[in-house]
Structure formats: structure tokens, C-alpha cells
């Protein structure tokens, strides 16, 4: 009974009430609310983001503040004056109820998840996993990633249309991260399914039915993860999770709950955003044959093209922070407690940083100046790995199937924060 009661409270606080508030705020013209509502559709957000940009570096409203300014986004994400705060989980009565209802949940938006932790806990968690994702460590995986991409492409039948998400862009990153984390080959399809079903867990505004489905999936994933960690404790391998389990057992690492939260997030985040990067990149290059020709004829390189994909159609649209103290951002005063939505997709189109920002240009000289991986202490751990997988995955695909073309039936995921394709049919040619 407590479980169902707590679940209903979580949905009310995290989804029902925010949905009502943002819809009402959007009708009244609140900039943050308008952005949140707009992310629920697959329409062009460009006009709205340009309108918000014209309001200055930070646009304030009753619901909260929002910025699409590149300098402001980087400053907010990089300074210690801002912290990650779970909306609806503060010291108010409603916030304390929400914290109680979320107690014990394995959820990417609940502590001790890296996504919502602040120092000193976040520093300790991140230090334990950072060494696996350094540029040097990632470079050692290049041959393995290339081989995995080749094997997956070998399995595709050129005579039949394929869903690229299901048969390539989803399988490549999940296979790579599974190898890093010691997941058996016969469990990888299950991990991919968990990631796809749980992706909306980062969002707000879920229906009751969708919320329960996500919660059930997270619970199943938690059970599977516990079993996987126990297997590694009994039969450790040369992988990150085995080392984390060993450190826990020696009393110098994470607690059981911290280990599960960190392992679950690294596993899911290790492929979910890269799935979007590969799918978004395939669609963009197919829709811009001149850019694909530039890559084929030496007018641009694949690594830079990946950064331009990340800039132009980022896998993560936005993230939020809360001011821990009275401060100032690019000359704009911000009071303690102020919540600010940083729109990564908007910062990536800032004309003060990117010339002709609404043009997809794989040779753009400063494409890597995007903020799609965030900044500061929460900068994406797997950024180097994602870039390498993106470059190898896209180059291998278009070299193997140079006549690849999009087929009918592509559609985006129904998620607000993660942006990518749920289905991307292609004709390989």
C-alpha cells in the first residue's frame, strides 16, 4: 500500500503539478514554461528561442528563468554559484513529502545519481569512474569500436529497408558500453530495451500510465543490475563495474546504493545519448548530400562533422540549475534560489558564437564550441567515447552504404530532454 501511495505522490509532484503549472505559465507568456511546453512537440523551436534571445542573456518569468545565451549557459554550468536541484524536492512541506515518497528509488533523477548530486558526494562518485573515460583510455578502444561497427554492418541486408535505430545506431553504443562494464553479450538486448523504456524518466509531464511504465522498467532494471553486480562480485573481470564492486567490498568505494545508482547511470548514459547522436547524424547527412560529399572528398573530417551534429541537433536539449548564492551571470544579477533552465540547443545556435548558426556545416571551424556535453563538474563523462563512436559509426555506415537514403516512417522519440529518433527507416542501396 505504501508503495502505491508513494508512487502516486511522486507522479503528482514530479509530473501532474508541473504540467498544470507550465501550461498555465505558457498561456501567460512565461518564457521557461513556453520552452518546456514546446519540447513536447516536434515543431521548430527556432522562433521561440530567437524571441527569448532578444530578451537578453537571461529571460525571467514567474515560473523560472531561461537562457539560450552561450556565455550564460557556460557560466551557469561551470560556476560553483549554481547547483543541481531537484524541482519539487526542497525544504517546503511539499518538497519534504516528495523527498519521502522518492526514498529508496533507483532513479537517474534521484540522489545518489551523479546527475543530481553536488559536492562533496558528486566529486567522490565521479573520481571513481573518470579514469575509464579519459581520452587515453578511450583511444585504446578505437580498434574494438571499429570492429563492432563492421560486424553490425555485415549483418545488415542491403536488399531490405532497415530501422537504423534498432539494427545499428542502438546496437553499436550498447555493445561498446556493455563491454566496458562487463555485461554478457546475451544480456545486451535487454539493456538496450531498458534504456529505451526508461529514457522518459528524465522528463516531466508524463501521463500516469507512462509514469507507471517507466517506474516498472526502472524497478526491473534495478533488479537486473543487482544480479549483475553480484555476478561480478563472484566472478570479477577486467571492467569498470568489477573494479567498483571490489572497491566497495574493500570498504574504500561506494555503498551498495551508491554503487547501484552510479553503475545504472553510467550504463544507461553510456549509450542512450550516443544512440541519438548516430541517428541524428545519419538523418542530417542524408538530408544534406553536399555535406556528405565534403566528407567523402576531404573537405571536412568526420570528427568535426560529429561536433557539428552535436551542435545542430543535440542529443540533450536542456538542463536546469539553481543559484546557491546571490550572484551575477554575464552581468545579470541572479538571486539565491533562482532556478534557471539552460537550453543547450539554443546556446548552440547563438549567433555571437556561431556564424550562420542555422546552417548545417560539417567544416565549421568552431563546431566543437557547442555545449551539448554540458560544462563544469557535470560535463559528460563519456564525451570522448561518444565523439569516437559517432565518428567511427557514421563514417563506417556511409562508406559501407554510400547510396543510403532515408525511407518513409521516421519519427522522433516522445521525450522532452533527450532528442533522437525512435524509428529511422533507411534504404541501404
From TrEMBL:
Database matches in InterPro entries: Cyt_P450, Cyt_P450_B, Cyt_P450_CS, Cyt_P450_sf
Molecular-function GO terms, alphabetical: cholest-4-en-3-one 26-monooxygenase activity; heme binding; iron ion binding; steroid hydroxylase activity
GO biological process terms on file: cholesterol catabolic process
Cofactor(s) named in the record: heme
Pfam families: p450
Parts forming coiled coils: none
Record keywords: Heme, Iron, Metal-binding, Monooxygenase, Oxidoreductase
Family in the record: Belongs to the cytochrome P450 family.
Protein name: Cytochrome P450
Originating species: Gordonia humi
Amino acid at each position: 500500500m505504501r508503495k502505491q501511495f508513494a508512487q502516486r505522490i511522486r507522479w503528482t509532484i514530479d509530473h501532474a503539478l508541473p504540467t498544470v503549472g507550465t501550461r498555465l505559465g505558457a498561456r501567460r507568456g512565461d518564457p521557461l514554461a513556453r520552452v518546456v511546453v514546446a519540447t513536447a512537440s516536434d515543431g521548430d523551436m527556432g522562433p521561440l528561442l530567437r524571441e527569448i534571445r532578444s530578451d537578453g542573456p537571461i529571460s525571467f518569468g514567474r515560473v523560472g528563468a531561461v537562457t539560450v545565451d552561450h556565455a550564460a549557459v557556460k557560466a551557469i554550468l561551470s560556476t560553483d554559484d549554481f547547483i543541481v536541484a531537484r524541482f519539487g524536492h526542497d525544504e517546503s512541506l511539499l518538497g519534504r513529502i516528495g523527498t519521502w515518497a522518492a526514498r529508496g528509488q533507483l532513479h537517474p533523477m534521484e540522489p545518489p545519481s551523479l546527475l543530481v548530486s553536488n559536492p562533496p558526494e558528486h566529486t567522490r562518485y565521479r573520481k571513481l569512474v573518470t579514469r575509464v573515460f579519459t581520452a587515453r583510455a578511450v583511444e585504446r578502444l578505437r580498434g574494438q569500436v571499429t570492429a563492432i561497427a563492421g560486424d553490425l554492418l555485415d549483418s545488415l541486408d542491403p536488399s531490405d529497408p532497415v530501422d537504423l535505430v534498432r539494427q545499428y545506431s542502438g546496437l553499436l553504443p550498447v555493445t561498446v558500453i556493455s563491454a566496458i562494464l562487463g555485461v554478457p553479450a546475451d544480456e545486451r538486448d535487454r539493456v538496450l530495451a531498458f534504456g529505451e523504456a526508461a529514457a522518459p524518466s528524465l522528463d516531466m509531464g508524463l501521463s500516469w500510465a507512462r509514469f507507471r511504465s517507466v517506474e516498472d522498467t526502472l524497478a526491473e532494471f534495478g533488479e537486473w543490475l543487482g544480479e549483475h553486480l553480484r555476478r561480478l562480485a563472484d566472478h570479477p573481470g577486467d571492467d569498470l563495474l568489477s573494479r567498483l564492486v571490489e572497491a566497495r567490498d574493500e570498504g574504500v568505494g561506494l555503498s551498495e546504493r551508491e554503487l547501484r545508482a552510479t553503475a545504472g547511470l553510467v550504463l544507461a548514459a553510456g549509450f542512450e545519448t550516443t544512440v541519438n547522436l548516430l541517428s541524428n547524424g545519419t538523418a542530417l547527412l542524408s538530408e544534406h548530400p553536399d555535406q556528405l560529399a565534403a566528407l567523402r572528398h576531404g573537405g571536412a573530417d568526420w570528427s568535426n562533422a560529429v561536433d557539428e551534429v552535436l551542435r545542430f541537433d543535440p542529443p540533450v536539449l536542456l538542463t536546469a540549475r539553481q543559484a546557491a548564492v546571490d550572484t551575477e551571470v554575464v552581468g545579470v544579477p541572479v538571486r539565491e534560489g533562482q532556478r534557471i533552465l539552460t537550453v543547450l540547443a539554443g546556446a548552440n545556435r547563438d549567433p555571437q558564437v556561431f556564424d550562420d548558426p542555422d546552417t548545417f556545416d560539417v567544416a565549421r571551424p568552431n563546431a566543437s564550441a557547442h555545449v551539448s556535453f554540458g560544462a563544469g563538474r557535470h560535463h559528460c563523462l563519456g564525451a570522448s567515447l561518444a565523439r569516437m563512436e559517432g565518428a567511427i559509426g557514421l563514417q563506417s555506415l556511409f562508406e559501407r552504404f554510400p547510396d543510403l537514403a532515408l525511407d518513409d516512417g521516421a519519427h522522433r522519440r516522445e521525450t522532452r530532454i533527450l532528442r533522437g529518433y525512435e524509428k529511422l527507416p533507411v534504404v541501404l542501396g
